[in-house]
């Protein structure tokens, strides 16, 4: 009974965060809706597994770190942090506003202590693994988690980082890949297929490779906590735009990834939200 209650509680939590993501996007008529909905359970699992809380949030030298390298899920990240009380929920109203605190890029040293929970923010893909390596090596006693996308794996800078992790056996860093088989304007298999054979490639590189359902918080947390003899690489199977997949056919790849939404689509999203309550 207790287990069932906890599971139901997690479902309610996820539904609330997802509603906040959709509402935030609709208010500003744009943003990375599909990417955020596709990895929201991963984000929640990362921030509830990492040792990050209100008491240690500004202890950047010692606390765990979460680096969102795939970047194009900023709305999902800040809505998750707001739900966990790691940023003020009122900040969501500043998303994409001129002179607002929250946007595609967030720099702690500019935005200030109100976003201390955002450990990394540039907007550009391909850099998070290198940043994560630096954070992991600066304090081997803490854990560092880096979220990458399978489309992002086409970036050469990530592979330089992977080789470095393996050669130097950096075991306090965990790479989590959001595998949805898509990138901005197509399926990865039609550009450079970084998705299909990911398990074998990463195992051959020298990682301990685990797979999990990227929409099951409990599975993701189990993978994050699993003991590893070598550096760990987790493949989280996801659906991009989960719950809003119909938008792909109507908007096409690029606009599904990110666009300024017409009122027609905002109405459709809001109606779907209303139907789920």
- The first-level CATH class name: Alpha Beta
Number of helices: 11
Q: What ranges have pLDDT less than 50 throughout 5 or more consecutive residues? A: 1-6
- The name of the CATH architecture is 3-Layer(aba) Sandwich
The CATH superfamily name is Thiamin diphosphate (ThDP)-binding fold, Pyr/PP domains
Strand order of the largest sheet: 2-3-4-8-7
Q: Using the CA coordinates, give the radius of gyration.
A: 18 Å
Shape verdict: globular
Helix content: 40-55%
**Per CATH, what is the topology?**
Rossmann fold
Return the structural class: alpha/beta
Number of strands: 9
Mean pLDDT: 85
Largest sheet: 5 strands, parallel
Task: Sketch the topology as an H/E string, one letter per element.
Answer: HEHEHHHEHEEEHEHEHHEH
Please state roughly what percent of the residues sit in beta strands, choosing from under 5%, 5-15%, 15-25%, 25-35%, 35-45% or over 45%.
5-15%
For the termini, the CA-CA separation is 24 Å
What's the structural domain tally?
A: 1
């Amino acid at each position: 009974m207790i287990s069932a209650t906890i599971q139901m509680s997690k479902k309610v939590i996820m539904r609330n965060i997802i509603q906040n993501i959709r509402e935030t996007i609709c208010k500003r008529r744009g943003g990375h809706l599909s990417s955020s909905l596709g990895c929201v359970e991963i984000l929640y699992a990362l921030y509830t597994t990492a040792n990050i809380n209100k008491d240690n949030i500004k202890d950047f030298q010692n606390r765990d770190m979460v680096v969102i390298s795939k970047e194009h899920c900023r709305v999902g990240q800040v809505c998750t942090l707001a739900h966990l009380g790691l940023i003020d929920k009122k900040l969501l109203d500043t998303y994409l506003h001129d002179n607002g605190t929250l946007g595609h890029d967030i720099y702690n040293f500019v935005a200030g202590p109100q976003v201390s929970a955002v450990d990394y923010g540039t907007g550009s893909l391909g850099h998070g693994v290198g940043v994560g390596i630096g954070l992991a090596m600066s304090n081997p006693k803490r854990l560092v988690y880096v979220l990458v996308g399978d489309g992002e794996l086409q970036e050469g800078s990530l592979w330089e980082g992977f080789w470095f992790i393996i050669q130097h056996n950096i075991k306090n860093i965990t790479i989590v890949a959001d595998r949805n088989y898509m990138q901005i304007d197509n399926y990865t298999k039609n550009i450079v297929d970084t998705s299909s054979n990911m398990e074998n490639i990463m195992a051959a590189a020298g990682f301990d490779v685990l797979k999990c359902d990227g929409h099951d918080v409990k599975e993701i947390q189990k993978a994050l906590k699993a003991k590893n003899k070598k550096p760990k690489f987790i493949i989280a199977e996801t659906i991009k735009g989960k719950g809003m997949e119909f938008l792909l056919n109507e908007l096409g790849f690029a606009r599904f990834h990110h666009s300024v939404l017409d009122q027609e689509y905002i109405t459709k999203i809001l109606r779907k939200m209303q139907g789920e309550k």
